[in-house]
Amino acid sequence: MSEAKKPVLEVRNLSVTLPKGADREFAVDKVSFTVNPGEIVCLVGESGSGKSVIAFTVMGLLAKALKPSSGEILLQGENILAASEGRLRELRCTRMSMIFQEPMTALNPVMTCGEQIDEVLNTHTSLDAAQRKAKIIAILDRVKLPEPERIYASYPHQLSGGQRQRIMIAMALVLDPVLLIADEPTTALDVTTQAEILKLIAELQATEGTGVLFITHDFGVVAEIAHRVAVLRWGGLVEMGPTEQILSRPEHAYTKMLISSVPSIHPVHRGARKEGITVLRTEKLGKVYSGKSFFQKARVVKAAVDVDLDIRKGETLGIVGESGSGKSTVARCIARLIDPTDGKVFLGDTEIATMPAGKLRPHRRKVQIVFQDPYRSMNPRITVGEFIIEGPMNFGLKRDEAMARARKLMETVRLDPNSLDRYPHQFSGGQRQRICIARALAMEPELLIADEAVSALDVSVQKQVLELLDEIRQRLNLAVLFITHDLRVAAQICDYVAVMSKGRVVEYGSAEQVFGAPRDDYTKALFAAAPGRHWEFGKFATA
Amino acid sequence: MTVATEDLVDSASIAAASTKRKSLWLLALRNPNVIIGGSILLIMLAIAALAPFLGTVDPTRIDPASRNKKPGTEITMRLDDGQAVKRVALMGTDSLGRDVYSRVIYGTRVSLAVGAAVAIIAIAIGVVIGLVSGYIRWLDGIIMRIMDGLMAIPGILLAIAMVSIWRAGLITVIFAIVVPDVPRVVRLVRSIVLTVREEPYVEGAISVGTPTWVLMFRHILPNTVAPLIVQGTFLAASAILVEAALSFLGIGIPPEIPSWGNIMAEGRTLFRVFPHNIFYPGIFLAFTVLAINIMGDGLRDTLDPKMSKKV
Amino acid sequence: MLDFIARRLVAIIPVLTVVAVLVFLMLRLTPGDPAAVIAGDNATSDQINDIREKLGLNEPIWTQFAIWIGNILQGNFGESFFFKKTVAELIAQRIEPTLALAMCTLIFAVCVSVPLGVLAAYRQGSVLDRIVMAFCVMGFSVPGFVIGYCLIYVFAIELGWLPVQGYIRIGVNFWQFLERMVLPSLTLSVGFIALISRITRASVLEVLNEDYIRTARAKGLSSRVVLMRHALRNAAVPILTVIGLGVAILIGGAVVTESVFGLPGLGRLTVEAVLSRDFPTIQTVILMFSVVYVVVNLLIDISYTVFDPRIRY
Predict the structure, then answer these.
(1) Quick one: which of A321, A376, A310 has its CA closest to A346?
(2) Computed from CA positions of residues B179, B180, B182, B186, in that sequence, does the dihedral angle turn out positive or negative?
(3) Three-class secondary structure of residue C309 per DSSP
(4) Could you tell me if B241 and C143 are in contact, meaning their C-beta atoms sit under 8 angstroms apart?
(5) Between A and C, how many CB-CB pairs are < 8 A?
């Protein structure tokens, strides 16, 4: 084996112990893998798989409560676990670098971006100020930031999320390390920004021959960027191999299940439009936020402009868009959690957009909403049973009738009806989301709004909740408004899709038409940016 | 997308939260700070309750014959029926011949009463105003401007001003200490109301048609209980200190009422010769306040970890 | 930047208005005739009538307020019938000891408490941290006058190192002035140090959990650099805020400390005024301290912009 082909990173039999009282003994359990020069290795797994712990262990940045208990981590043959803190500091940013998930918080808010990169050079090199500046401007240019001089003097809050992540990449790569660790670097970014960052990482590592350890939960990203893949579960390595092999011929049942859970980006054929009754129609719906201030001109944010939508019985309408596109604003206006500033919302024949709050109550029953965060959607102080019956009892149902209905609904969402007297914390995220659906259904609504309702869930749990939602829609002939940023999810669940950008609906049509032949430029760009769009994830039988 | 970076820590904290939720109060009772502070406070409460049975005499009884005695001096007392009794003045006597030990023991009652009364009244008023402010938008601006104005006057000065208006008395002093504390409670309650209102579970309750008052009592108010208990302990501690300071300055409760501040005020002039008149009540005062503060710290760490970051 | 300052300035107007109204109402809430209250216990009916005329007490209450606030804005704070001087003179006479005490305390307390808090945070859970935290709880619990008398007892009476009480003007003899400032400043510092060390520790600890601290460590910086360059500057805003709020404690503490050490300052004046029910003086002192407090906090607000570039509007 030639010198160049020696692995930059070799993890052997690594175990990391969890503090006492945790749900299991090891955060990482006897994991071994290698990263070669010029290679991108993806560590993929659901939450709690230990993938981030591995990344932090390599950098020596593990929280104090976690202790590596056995194994070796060899960086170009040098065992990092045995290295002193001083030696580790020397290695960081010179031979191994790391970029993080949240570009918004990963940079020091009170230092300019230039100063922050300069710190790296100042610590690890003996270059003088002018040389350092030149080197920084060069690397800013290489990560394709416009006007490097201006960026150099900018504070992080003056830059966008994507730009900040580029700064992080510049900082990580300025001293040409042999290993780059990327911990979910694009998870917090919008899909179009994500595509650019992924492309940048791939380009830079190819030209420099950097080995990359890439942590992600997203198989789309894996398909896009990885050379080899390691699948983790509960701290253990399930399966490892070249990307093509893992994605198309997984051997382990868990890998098969994971990959089968990834929704396809191609919409399923739903047949011709049913002639149902229109449940909800919006007419030029708009929401303008205006911040009044004494000295400045009023700042006006148009969160939603001229939104026309309609949903019929038994139909799912999806609103897709990036963050800030106004998709959630529309949902919240329809549910009247916020008051629209323009336009009309017809619920059946009733106009509710301008209805005073006092008269609204009887109509609230008809529109129910399931939120994104399963941990904040339920009052931690009341039992699940109380949570579900609250609504029906508000509308005059007797307690025992409401409870009977709650038991039935728990069965509908496939949870044990006997657990109605338990508290929310005794349920997992996916289970809570089911409970929230049950609560919404308890109101016997005409329209169910799911506001990013599956976005916080792991892909396997997400699949189950999506199937449940679709089944309920069919059985109850329910109208569903589905808000999501995830194109794959939208493709699988929606009959109709509205694409939103900057508060406006830029494209609106059947899922097949929008996904199959997008007309709007923004929609085209959005679809082109979807990671792993060329990959059709197989559906494997999991016995 | 909120897939946590440190997914592991996430699951650990969820696990921790699940054991926490129900037994939060039990957990607080097991906190060493709560145990230590609470025990001292219980002892003080016992002293206050049992003051007449702890070998005390009438704390307001003036005896010109035995003025300014050092601690441990044996003095002869003439009882009401004319009988002469010898007793050891554990903490000496003051310049009017009153027994300092008895005064200190009885003073416990005054301090604890002031602390408890101020905390309870300030919270009661503060919760009402805070809820109104957090819920009725058009009143919010007016109320908060008044609260800002009240907060702009340093607390002790405001209390001094209050006392100077109505002349000294126990009720006046309590009220004078309550007024500067109210804005603090109002701000706490209001900020909790405003934060919790934004929680998805509250929005969820709105969308299932829950009436406003149910929303308030069922979903919002319970969130204020733990922070208010924590705040209450700190209010009580500082109220005891302020009362002592006012009395010490001679503008607190009337001098004939045996309070720790009054004993110290009385001892000021002869401090060089008889420092015990200041030290004994000072020790009791410091211990009581320390106990409440330690207990408050413990309660805050267990009941309200978010606030513990903000001091 | 100027915009920011202007908006801050405008924001304190309602606060000061409320303060002025409260202080004005103070006198009206006292039982009895305000003019008689102002004139003091041994005033003639002519004097009382004269005051009633001057303050427009026969006019409706808002006219009275207008007259009162108009006088104050012109620097006319009224007359103290007890001290037989104008209140302005009285305050000019008494301001030096208070100012000196506050400055000595502020400088000493900040110099001690910030490093203490940073160290405690840096070595969280260590013996040092525990000692600092224990000191903080003690500092909150032991009242200033008890600390003051303990210090007098040890350093002035038993050891005889420092004078017990009294004040010498800074212009008269600087050394003697300093000698007499040591114990009062130490006394007043205790609570202040407790407060600031605690918030410093808490803010530094919070900042140390931030993502950008992890980034800084991932850059290979030493922990000292991470602490001083990254953590402390980000923790500066909450620390400054509490120093500003602590000025209220300083003012309240000054009242007590001046009484213990016999300093002829504004705190002592307040107590004397209350004891003699000298309302023009009480009102002016309270108004003045409140304005100082509000202005100090305004300055601190503005200084945030130096520490945090995000605050710019």
Answers:
(1) A310
(2) positive
(3) coil
(4) yes
(5) 76
Q: Does A489 touch chain B (CB under 8 A)?
A: no
What the block records as the tokens of B190 is 């209001």
Helices (H), chain C: 2-29, 34-39, 45-54, 61-73, 87-122, 127-141, 144-151, 174-208, 211-218, 223-225, 232-261, 266-275, 279-307
Chain B contacts of C137, Cβ < 8 Å?
Answer: 290, 293-294, 297
Which of A90, A108, A110 is opposite residue C220, by nearest beta carbon? A90
Q: How many residues does the structure list for chain B?
A: 311
| Residue A427: φ, ψ to 5° | -120, 155
Cα separation, C76 vs C89, whole angstroms: 10
Domain that holds residue B200: 25-56+99-308
Per-residue confidence band for B307, with pLDDT thresholds at 50, 70 and 90: low
DSSP SS3 for A38? coil
**Which residues, at least 6 apart from A372, have a Cβ–Cβ distance to it below 8 Å?**
A451, A452, A453, A455, A456, B2, B200
Candidate from B160, B245, B251 with C-beta closest to C143: B245
CA distance A51 to A232: 7
- Residue B10 pLDDT > 70: no
Q: Which two tokens stand for residue A33?
A: 């893998």
Q: How many domains does chain B have?
A: 1
Residue of chain C nearest A117, judged by CA positions: C219
Rounded to whole angstroms, the Cα distance separating B309 from B230 reads: 13
Structure tokens at C122: 């840096």
Token pair listed for C257? 């400390």
Return the residue matching tokens 């109402």: C25
- Residue indicated by tokens 């009438």: B58
Neighbour subunits, B (≥3 Cβ pairs < 8 A): A, C
Residue in this structure with the two tokens 């978010």, named with its chain if needed:
B306
Question: How many Å apart are CA C238 and CA C117, to the nearest integer?
Answer: 13
Residue B117 forms part of a structural domain: yes
CATH number of A9-261: 3.40.50.300
Residue B205 falls inside a structural domain? yes
Residue boundaries of the structural domains of chain C: 32-76, 94-264
Name the residue type at position B82: G
Cα radius of gyration (chain C): 24
**Interface predicted TM-score (ipTM):** 0.86
> Residues of CATH 3.40.50.300 domain(s) within chain A?
9-261, 314-341+352-529
Buried b (16+ CB within 10 A) or exposed e, C156-175: beeeeebbbeebbeeeeeee
First to last CA, chain A: 41
Gap between the Cα atoms of C30 and B96, Å rounded: 33
Task: Report the pLDDT value the prediction gives residue A311, as an integer from 0 to 100.
Answer: 92
What is the rounded CA–CA span in Å between residue B118 and residue B188? 17
| CATH architecture under which domain C94-264 falls | Orthogonal Bundle (1.10)
The domain A314-341+352-529: what is its CATH number?
A: 3.40.50.300
pLDDT tens digits along A281-333: 999 999 988 765 554 555 788 888 899 999 998 899 999 998 888 899 999 99
Give the global pTM.
0.84
Closest by alpha carbon to A90, among A70, A106, A75? A75
